[in-house]
Amino acid sequence: MRVKILIIEDEYNLADAISSMLKSQKYDVEIKTDGEAGLDEALTNIYDLIILDVMLPHKNGFEILIELKKEHIDAKIIMLTAKSTIDNKMEGFNNGADDYLTKPFHMEELIARINIQLRKSNSNIDDNIKIGDLVLNIKNMELSNINTSYKVNIIGKEFGLLELFMNNANRVMEKEQLFVKIWGYDTECDINTLEAYVSFIRKKLKKINSKVKLKAIRNMGYILEVDDEKVKS
Q1: What is the CATH number of the domain that holds 154?
Q2: Residue 152: beta bridge partners?
Q3: CA dist., res. 132 & res. 152, Å (int)
Q4: Is residue 171 pLDDT above 70, yes or no?
Q5: Mode of pairing for the β-strands spanning 4-8 and 49-53
Q6: Based on the domain organization, do 104 and 41 belong to the same domain?
Q7: Least C-beta-crowded within 10 Å: which of 1, 27, 35, 208?
Q8: 132: closest CA among 216, 232, 202, 200?
Q9: Residue 130 contacts by C-beta under 8 Å, 6 or more apart in sequence?
Q10: In this structure, what CATH number is given to the domain that contains residue 84?
Q11: Strand partners of residue 5
């Protein structure tokens, strides 16, 4: 899957310029111009890297950073600020920021810093996502049950959807959110398409005899329900 980057920046023209540059380098990019909306989006935990402004409406960048670290969001975080004091930078680093860039900056420098952080991330990447009795091997696109050793291949949109569910286990994922993340904003796919893919995933879970359940939440979306107590150690 392509690298996903979230930009949380209230200066839309700047955010749009950064987005355009990143998209030209084949990154998937999402923009949020409000602190609370940005935090909600970041908490989906589907992004590889977050570009986070300090001065934001409703919730500032430091507050967002603290919340993301508390929730163990593992995206790399590059903070942007108009303040260049050492105290300001140290606050970001002490709260878990991976890098810090002072405005104004050259776009080329930001891109270079992004690439450095992504290389660091990829060097430590785990090919497996483990949830309950499930293991999803990203490299081989293979889903297996650690208790039974049953395996099944899973590809395409089905893979992307399951990966999203597993990265957000025990969290309700709204239907609109699933459409945007998997098919994009301009998709013509309808609810029947989503339900079909959910059905495919359920069949795969049943085939490998997993205790993990993909449940529908009425008028909302779906949740990948994991009860670790049912999983053998």
Answers
A1: 1.10.10.10
A2: 143
A3: 17
A4: yes
A5: parallel
A6: yes
A7: 1
A8: 232
A9: 136, 146
A10: 3.40.50.2300
A11: 29, 49
The pLDDT of residue 229 is 41
3-state secondary structure 164-182: HHHHCCCCCEEHHHHHHHH
Confidence band for 228, pLDDT divided at 50, 70 and 90: low
Residues of the chain with pLDDT > 70: what percent?
A: 87
Does a cis peptide bond (omega within 30 degrees of 0) precede residue 57? Answer: no
Single out the residue in 94, 123, 152 at which a domain terminates. 123
Which pLDDT value is given to residue 34?
95
pLDDT, tens only, 173-207: 888 888 877 776 566 778 888 999 999 999 999 99
Q: CA-CA distance, 8 to 79, in Å (whole number)?
A: 10
The pLDDT tens digits for 101-147 are 888 888 888 888 898 888 876 655 567 889 999 999 877 789 999 99
What does the pLDDT read at residue 186? 60
162 shares a domain with 110: no
Assess contact for 19 and 26: CB atoms under 8 A: no
CB atoms within 10 A of CB 184: 10
105's tokens? 């900056």
The answer, yes or no, to whether residue 47 has pLDDT greater than 70, is: yes
Full residue range of the structural domain in which residue 36 is found: 4-123
Nearest to 210 by CA among 131, 127, 128, 129: 131
Q: Are 10 and 32 in contact (CB under 8 A)?
A: no
- Whole-number Å distance between alpha carbons of 70 and 138: 26
Structure tokens given for 82 = 């108009």
